Amino acid sequence: MPAVSSAPARAPRITAVRRQEERVLPLELFFDLVFVLCLTQCTALMATNPTWEGLGQGLLILCLIWWAWVGYAWLTSVIDPEEGVVRIVIFTSMAAFLVLALCVPDAFGDDAVIFACAYGIVRAAHIALFLIASRDDPELRRSVLGLGGGTAVGVGLLLAGAIAGGEAQTVLWILSFVLDMAEPAFFGAAGWRLMPSHFAERHGLIVLIAIGESIVAIGAGAETQIDAGVITAAVLGIVVAAALWWLYFDVVATAAEHRLSRATPGREQNEIARDSYSFLHFPMVAGIVLIALGMKKTLGEVGEPLKAETAVAILGGTSLYLIGHVAFRLRNIRTLNVQRLVCAGVLLALVPVAVAVDALVTVAMIAALLTAVITYETLRFAELRDRIRHQLAREPG
Q: By residue range, what is the domain housing residue 273?
C-alpha cells in the first residue's frame, strides 16, 4: 500500500505578493475586457446624444470608471490576482463593473442609482483586497485606510447625486471625481507599493485596448452600404489608429517603463507612477474615446460635414492624446515635445474647417498630420530612437 502522509493539509493561500519579474497575468486581461465595454458604452452614450451635454456626460462617466480601473492597476501590482480569495473578489468586481457598464447609456436618467451602487461595489472590493494585501505592511495599511475613507465619501456623493438627479447629480458626481483624484495629495505617496514593469505594461495594454475600441467604432459606424467613401474612411481610420499606436508604443512606452524602473522605490517612484500613469494616461485614453466617437459619426455620413460637437470630439480628442504625451515627457525628463504640441495646436485650429468640409476630408487631415509627425520624429531622432528601442529596452531597470 502507498504510504499515507501524516502531514496536515496546507490551507489555501488568501493572497500572494507579486514577484518583481512577473508581467500582466491572464486574469488581469480578463478583467480589462469588461473595461472595454465601459469604453464602448461611453462612446455609444455620446454618439446617441452628440450634444455638448452628451459629450460632457460621457467624459464624466469615463473619468469615474478610469479612476476605478486605476485602483485595480495599483492593487494588482502588489498582489497576485490569481491567488486564493483574490480571484473570487476580482470576479465579483468584474460582475459589478459589467452592471455599471450596462447602466452607462442611462446613467443620467433612470439607471443612475444602479450605476452608483455598482460603482460602490467595484470600489469597496478594491479597498477590501488592499486591506488584505496590507495586513503585514503598516505603512501601506495607513495609506489604504486613508484611501478607504476618501473612497467612502466619493461613493456617498455619487449615490446622493444619483438620488437627487438633474443638475445636482452632475455637480455631485464632478465633486466625487475631483475628491477621488485629490486623495493621493492628502494621504501622500510614500506608503504605496508597485512593480514598475508590471505597472507600465498594464497601462500600455489599456492604451492598446482603447485604440482597439476605436477600430470597433469604425465597424459600428459603417451601417450604410459599403461604397468608395466608406472604404476610404475605413482605411483612413486604420491609418489614424496605427498612428496612435506608433506614437505611444514605438518609443514612449519603452522610455516610460525604463524611467519608472530607474526611480528610487518609495515616494519618488510612486509619484512618477501616479503622475505619469494614473493622471497623464487619462487624457490619452479620453482622447482615443473621442476619436472613436468622431470615426463612428464619420462612417455614418462620409459625405457630410461633421457637426460642431463631433468635430471638436475628433480633432480635440486627437489633440488631447498628443497633449497627454507632451505632458508625460515634461513630467519625466523636463523637456518639451515641440512637434507634438504644434500638431495638437494645428488640430484644434482646424475645427472651423471640419464643420465646412466633408467628414472624410477631416479624417484625411488628421491622418496626414499624425503621419507627418511620425515621419519627422523617425528621421530627426533616428539615432535616439534606435538606442531606446534596441538598447534601452534590454537594460535592467
A: 195-397
